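We modelled the chain as a single entity of 278 amino acids. Its sequence is:
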Amino acid sequence: MHQSKALNLTIQRIGSKRPQTEAMLAAVTTMAFAERLANRDVAWNIHIDGLAQMVKERHSKGMSLPWWLHDLVILDSINHVFNFPRVYHRKVINAIGSADSSLILQVVELCEGLIKLRQSIDTSNKYSNPGYIPYITQEIEAPFANLLHQALNLRKNSDNKAAHATAQAVEIILYLSCPWKNAPNLNTLADELKETLLQLPVRSCSYMDFTSCQHLIGAIASQHKTSTQAWFVNKLTSAAKAMRSRGWHQPFEVLEDGLQFDVRLTEWFRRLLDRGLE
């Protein structure tokens, strides 16, 4: 009942054509997070439509995109890779517009390329025979090198920490997805990701921490029983504890349900659960 009233009030506020405050944007964003975690797609899409409309309304009045929403969309591009976005949606990207999204568009290109590469890897795994090597070389090796180059350039050419964290996560995902590659020390990459996340200017909440694919990827990539993995696991378990206090009795089961559309991430996540994540 409470959520229904909040949703109706949000719709009324969006339709009022009054200037959309940052507080209102934050409220809709928070509700979108909750609906995504609860796997309520209809309600989530309503909030996403509302968020896109609010951003357009702000643009029409000469109001820029709040920095925290800009960075959140960038960070959420990794969730989009795993089909578990919180606020990332093409409608929101389009609403932001070119004036505020040059960096976002670079991230979009990078992550869309990563999605295509992972699809190619899935296809190659179905036809793993010697005669299929030319396909693997053409469809995987070249895109892998290109995406790695893009990720490194993004870190080099931007001082935005959200972009850095996204590029670092992409690099880790590339090596996790292609275990036959001569990867650098994944624990070192995870530690670098941790240090970047610590420098993010946005103040996170339990919803953000718990649903962050950067946190999941860092926990998965880091070496077992290291301080790096302990940091990532603590971010997840602390957020889960906070969510239990709010009535989410089995948060990790809920999260696993949300990740079910990406088989590989689900497998990685279950390994974490087997190691005692609770």
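As a brief sanity check on the tokenised model: The CA atoms of residues 241 and 251 lie 9 Å apart. The two ends are 30 Å apart (CA to CA).
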